[in-house]
Structure formats: structure tokens, C-alpha cells
Amino acid sequence: MSFIHEKQSRNFLLFLVLCVLLWVCSAFFIYQHHVTTIKEMNLQQDYAVASALLEQGLSPDQIAAAVTGTSISSPGRELIRKIGITEDTALRFLPITHRASTSLIHTLALQTLLLSALLLTGGLFFLRRREKLYLLAVEKVTRFMDGDFSSHLPRTDEGSLYRLFALVDSLANALRAKNETEHEARSFLKDTISDISHQLKTPLAALNMYNEIIADEPDNHLTVAEFSQKTGQALKRIESLIGAMLKIARLDTGSILFEKRPHPVTELVSRAAEDLKIRAEQEDKVICVCGPPEIVECDLEWTCEAISNLIKNALDHTGAKGRIHITWERSHTMLRLFVSDNGTGINPEDFHHIFKRFYRSKNSLDTQGAGLGLPLAKSIIEGQGGLISVQSTPGEGTVFTLSFLTEL
């Protein structure tokens, strides 16, 4: 009965109820009129019978008994049959009955005609409005099929039809979201390919140059050794660049499922800094780790890589005798891990761009890296539901903060 909640159906149902009430009322008035007509005709017949009997010389008492009598005798029945009035007598030979039936037929025909016209008009009006609604729905759905989702199906009323329209609108929204996702995926793929192509130009050009130098001086062992070493470094840079881009692409497309498990923070930090301590010693820098025994729920391998990228960034922007501190603390709802350094810091104009891919500030053009470490770290931490933030003072150092939600 949900169609009752729909305005058009509700109005049409009310119209049908009014038509039924009108038919009942008109039938009652027709019945009253027919009864009145029959009474008048019976009176006219009684007047005619009484007048004829008076002319035959019957007394008024006899006439009154004849008119008001209800008993039927066999001689009376036979007399009526002899004058030609029986059950098979045609109505046209019974003037009073004929006039009564004719009047009733005319009245019923008029009533049927008027009610039929009213019902037909109301039904056509309802169907016409429904047809307009269906044509509007066809137009909107056709637009959806053509990729135009700027308009919506009417949803201003209740009922099954409008629920269907709402579902079609929801389907259109899903199609639009899918189209936008596909467009974003194509744009992302296009941008990724463009970024990789742009970033590979320099090391590939260097490789070609090194190869030409080696080819020109094959007998010069020092030259061959020197540029063979540079070739290896260029290949490592290409490998690192492609690996980082593929990781970021997988993270952005959601194709990586993080396996979050409880891990000691000391284990996490130790694994992240293990391979970088040799570099720190070679560059006369110190990596300091300090913090209480705590447990954090995360994906060990990926989170280690994120922390490792932050340590690399700190080493890149810290001079000799520099110190990189890794500490952590737990609050009521989260665990915070800090990677701080006393390096060059971040300039105000660079602050809002440091997490963009391949972004290099003018003060870090001579440092290592391709500008992918911080974007990769951000994708890893946020992909696990964490947060990464940064504070920095130019000339004094930078602090990166990783925040992991913990269970209460």
C-alpha cells in the first residue's frame, strides 16, 4: 500500500472514492424518483379504475373494496387473462409500466453516461500526468547514459515510483563516481609515466655519456674504472627511482594491504636506522635513539621504510657533526614518534611543498635523493590511519612527528 503515499496515486484514489460516492448518491436519488413515479402511475391507474366502475353503477363501497383489496381469486385471474394481460404481455401494451420502465432506463443511461465520462476524464488526466513523469525519467536516464549527471530524477514525493527514481539516481551517482575514479586513475597513470620519464632523462643521459667515454678510451683502465663506477651509481639511482615510484603508485591506488601487528617501537626504529648508521659515521654524523619500552600497531616493513626515509632526509640536510634524534612518547590515545635534526631547516616558501613528488627546494639541489622520500613516507603513514606532521626553523633544524592511534 505504499502507493498511497504518492501524491498522484493518492489523488487518483481519492477521485475514485468520490466517483463511487457520487454513484451511490445518484442511485439513491434515482430510486426515490422511480418510487415516486410508480406511486403516481399507480394512483392514475386507481383513478381510472374507480372512474370506470362508477360509470358502471357500482357503489362507492364496492369500488373502494376493489381498489384496496389484496386477495386474488381464480375468476379475477381468468378475467385479466381474457382481456390479454399476462406475464408475457409486451411492455408497450402496459402503458403505466411502460412509462415507468422507460423513465428508469433513461435515468440510468444518463447516470451511466455522466459517471463514465467523469471516470474516463479522470483516468486520462492521471495517465497523462504519469506519461509526462515517465518521459521526464526517460530523458534524465538518457542523459545519464550519455555521461551527463548534472540533473536528477524527481524525488519530491513518496511512494514506490519515487523510490525507484531515488535508486536510479543512486545508480547514476555510482556511475559518476566510477567515471571520476577512472578519469583520476588515467590522469594518475599519465602523470606517473610523465614523472618517471622526466626523472629518468638525467641518469639515462649520464649513462650514455659514460658509455661513450668508456668506448672512446677502452685501453685507459683508470677512465674505464672511474666511469664504470659512475655507471653503477647511475643505475642504482634509476633502480631506486623506479622502485620508489612503483611503491607510491601502489599506495595511491590502494593495491597494498597493510598487515598491522603489535611491534616494539625499539625494534621498529632499530631496523629503520640500521643501514643508515654506516652512512652517518662516514659523514661524521650521529643517530641517537631514545625512548621508553612501548608497543605500536603497524606494518613493520612499510613503517620501517617510512622512518628510514625521514632519517635519510635528516642526513641529507644536516652538516658534519650533525645529530639526528629519534624519540617517542605515548599519550592517552596515541603514540608519537619524533625524527628531529639540527640541520638547515625548511624555508617558509618550501614548507607547504615538501610532501609533493620530486619537489626540491633551491637550497637542496646539491643534496642526494629525487624528492620521493617524504611523499612515500606520508603515503605509508596515512595509509595505515596515522598522521605525519612537521615543524621547522630555518637554520636550527626540523622535527617530523609520526602519530599512531592506540586502543584505549
Automatic annotation (TrEMBL):
Subcellular localization: Membrane
Record-listed E.C. numbers: 2.7.13.3
GO molecular function, one term: kinase activity
InterPro entries in alphabetical order: BphY/WalK/GraS-like, HATPase_C_sf, HATPase_dom, His_kinase_dom, HisK_dim/P_dom, HisK_dim/P_sf, Sig_transdc_His_kin-like_C
Residue intervals passing through the bilayer: 12-31, 104-127
Record domain Histidine kinase: where: 195-408
Catalytic reaction(s) noted: ATP + protein L-histidine = ADP + protein N-phospho-L-histidine
Pfam families: HATPase_c, HisKA
Phosphoprotein as UniProt keyword: yes
Keyword field: Kinase, Membrane, Phosphoprotein, Transferase, Transmembrane, Transmembrane helix, Two-component regulatory system
PANTHER family per the UniProt record, alphabetical: PHOSPHATE REGULON SENSOR PROTEIN PHOR
Protein name: histidine kinase
Lineage: Bacteria, Bacillati, Bacillota, Clostridia, Peptostreptococcales
